[in-house]
Every structure is written in structure tokens, then in C-alpha cells.
Amino acid sequence: MPFDVPNLPSAEIHVWRLPWSTDAAEAAPFRTLLAAYAGPGAPEVARGEHGKPHFPGDAGMLGFSWSHSQDTALFAIGRGPVGFEVGVDVERIRPRARALELARRFFAPAETTWLEGLPEEQVLGGFLGLWTAKEAVLKAHGGGLSYGLHRVAFAADGYDLSPGVFDGDVGPAEAWQVAPVTLGENLVGSVAWRGEPRSVRVFTFPV
């Protein structure tokens, strides 16, 4: 039986929360959601220059991405001009004793300074907020982590993050929208896309 998904207007990004395990069958909900949004007759998914999956031709108006962390996965999808891309990332909050060390190694200096100024109990949340925002942008771009986390720098205003300076063909930063995905106490997620601001709607895939 076909799975029904909400209408996807161009002013929205839809993010689905799904259960995840290492079982290959757990990828089935991704395919179910993608088929439901793409509709009958959609072409086979192709791979871009950096291996990012996408629809070729006119079907490329649908951009999609997925991510998983331990037992939770996210699937994000949006509609735009041909070539529209979206990226999503999720991380589970768990002790990371080396968070600041990793930030000093991979983040921009201003980002590390911001993290160092946070109360100790908020450093991990700030670190994961930055990490997921960066990875969401790099997934949408297609370069992934190998492109360099330091090349996607964010500006912090209090606890709010906004695109700061994006290097290379990811930029300019002003062309990007990055939004947190509200998932509850133990998860941090971000979704990113190029273009105008949109509403982000979060759904839960039925188990």
C-alpha cells in the first residue's frame, strides 16, 4: 500500500524522524518516503560528482538527504528549482570529553572562542549544534566532511547560529539557510538548504 505524505509546498522543508539500526532493512523507510514524495514515474536516483544522491533532470526539483546517529535517523526533503539540494545531520548527545579539542582542530577560531565562553554544561550542546549545522551544509553542497568543516564557519549571537563565512564553491554564506531540528533532550539536528527561508516541519515515521 502506498504511503501517504503531506503536501510539500516550496515554502517548506519536511524532516522525518525514523528508527534506525544496522539492519539493511532499516533503509526501507527512506525508500518509502522518497517514493511517496517523488510519485510514480520518478527516475532512478543518480550520484553527483561527490557521490551525493539526487534525481536527474526535471525530477531534480526534489532535494533530499538523510542522516543517522545510533538508533535514530532523519530524512529531509524540499522542493525548489532543478538542482535544489538539502542536507540534514543528527547527533545523539553523549559524553564527549574531547569536544573542545575537536573544535580547536576542525572549527574556525571564532567558533572555538564562542564554545570556550559557554558554561561548561552547555559546551557539548553548542559543539553538536555547530557540528550538525556544518555537516548539513556540506551534505547539501555534496562535498561532505572531506571538504573541510573549517571552511563552513558560523557566527554566534548568544546561542543562535547563523551562516558566517563559507569558503570556496560552498559560498557565499548569505545564500544559505540553516535551521535547528527540534528532536528532544537527547538529540541535536540541523537542516540546511540554499535559497530563501522556509518553514521546517518535523514528522515521525510510523513504526
TrEMBL record:
Record-linked InterPro entries: 4-PPantetheinyl_Trfase_dom, 4-PPantetheinyl_Trfase_dom_sf, P-Pant_transferase_sf
Sorted keywords for this record are: Transferase
What GO annotations for molecular function exist for this entry? holo-[acyl-carrier-protein] synthase activity; magnesium ion binding
Highest taxon in the source lineage: Bacteria
Task: Return any one Pfam family short name.
Answer: ACPS
A GO-annotated cellular component: cytosol
Task: Tell me the ranges covered by the 4'-phosphopantetheinyl transferase domain, including all copies.
Answer: 86-154
**What biological process terms from GO does the record include?**
lysine biosynthetic process via aminoadipic acid
Describe the family membership recorded for this protein in Swiss-Prot or TrEMBL: Belongs to the P-Pant transferase superfamily. Gsp/Sfp/HetI/AcpT family.
Q: What is this protein called?
A: 4'-phosphopantetheinyl transferase superfamily protein
**Naturally occurring in which organism (per UniProt):** Luteibacter pinisoli
